[in-house]
Amino acid sequence: MSRRVGPWLLASLFVTFLLLVAGLRVGSFDTDYATIWRALSHYDSTDPVQLVLVQLRLPRLLLALLAGAGLAFSGYLMQAMVNNALADPYLLGTASGASLGAILCFAFLDTLVLGGFYLPPLAALAGALFTTIVVVALGTQQGQLRPAQLLLAGVAVGALTAAVGSLVTFLAATDAKLSTVIFWAMGSFERAGWNLLPYPAVAVGGALLLFTFLQKDLNVLLLGEERAQALGLNVTRLRWILILTASGLTGCVVALCGPIGFVGLMIPHLTRWLLGVTGRANLLFCALLGAILCLPATCWPVCFIRRQAFPWAWSPPFSAYRSLYICCGKSASRFNGLLS
Q1: Could you say which DSSP state residue 55 is in?
Q2: Stretch among 54-63, 202-211, 267-276, 304-313 having the lowest mean pLDDT
Q3: N or C: which terminus of the chain carries fewer CB neighbours within 10 A?
Q4: How far apart are CA 191 and CA 183, in angstroms?
Q5: Could you report the per-residue pLDDT of 31-86, keeping only the tens digit for each?
Q6: Is the pLDDT of residue 319 over 50?
């Protein structure tokens, strides 16, 4: 398959734009393109149609875009960090730790805003960072990461934090808080709002900017820890940067959207299959593919059953099956260090 980067990037940008427009047009009621243009160019808050477009649909679409990009990006970084094709925010316990932090906020805090800051993303970041550090520590032996040991530690720590999260949910103070936690745990983009979008936007934008300068180091790390050190790479520093970045991305997304699986595991495989293992635009393309995977989840429930709020747990895009076929058939043989 051709590895030319330009056409793939342009195609992904075009598909992303089409999905955004389609998401604005389709909903509990359909609208036309002229109304969408007026709402975006000359917003009138007294017009109920424009109010729905700008205050409900557009934030939800942008949150889906950022969530997909963040999870895909996080999965790519984790797979590079441990040189293992099975790593993702869920398998290494990062998402479970973020979920626990967010659940603690939803279940026990009377107010979720303190000093102008929305607390769940901060608590999710702390939980994600803590569990990732624990898993990496358990998966390290004599100063080197052991892939099999790391994956076992991730599964064990993830199961433990998930169990604690279930206990916290059971002990939730009121029925209202319990229902909030349960609906959040099913995964949804319905919490989107202009006041919350800066959290994932800063996380995704900052990560993309940072790894624009660290892309070469990331490719060197794929050669293995010993070879990377022989080439002069500070492996320890880079891994800490990867841990902090992946935890921040996962924490922001999980706190706002709940657990969203599949994206962080499969999208990096599809990226490598299309652009190669060390493509110069892999990270940007991976983020765009993650956005493309998540954006339809905001549209198809209202297209088929006319329901606006629908949990992610019941809305996997049909492209998942195509991605699964591609990855099972092609990608595993192209990735260095699979379960090595």
Answers
A1: I
A2: 304-313
A3: N
A4: 11
A5: 888 888 888 888 888 888 888 888 888 998 999 999 999 999 999 998 888 777 77
A6: no
Query: What does the block give as tokens for 31?
Result: 């609208």
CA-angle at 61, arms to 55 and 107, nearest 5°:
80
Confidence of residue 330 (pLDDT cuts 50, 70, 90): very low
What DSSP line would sit under 20-48, residue for residue?
HHHHHH-SSS---HHHHHHHHHS--TTSH
Structural domain includes residue 207: yes
Task: Look at 278 and 287; give whichever has higher pLDDT.
Answer: 287
What own/partner pairs with CB < 8 Å and gap ≥ 24 does 116-120 have? 118/195, 118/196, 118/199, 120/255, 120/256
* 293 within 8 A of 263, measured Cβ to Cβ: yes
Tokens of 4: 């030319």
Under 8 Å between Cβ of 29 and 308: no
Query: Would 285 be classed as within a structural domain?
Result: yes
| C-alpha span between 189 and 117 (Å, rounded) | 20
Q: Which domain holds residue 153?
A: 5-334
Q: Is residue 123 part of a domain?
A: yes
In sequence order, the 6+-apart residues with CB closer than 8 A to the CB of 232 are none
Distance CA 156, CA 99 (A): 15
Number of structural domains the chain divides into: 1
Q: What is the DSSP string of 5-27?
A: HHHHHHHHHHHHHHHHHHHHH-S
The residue among 8, 251, 290, 235 whose CA lies nearest residue 122 is 251
- Residue 141, strand partner residues: 144
Helix (H, G, I), strand (E, B) or coil at 233: coil
Whether residue 249 lies inside any domain: the answer is yes
> Which CATH number characterizes residue 57's domain?
1.10.3470.10
Element (H, E) at 323: helix 319-329
Q: 6 vs 13, 15, 186, 281, CA distance in Å?
A: 11, 14, 37, 9
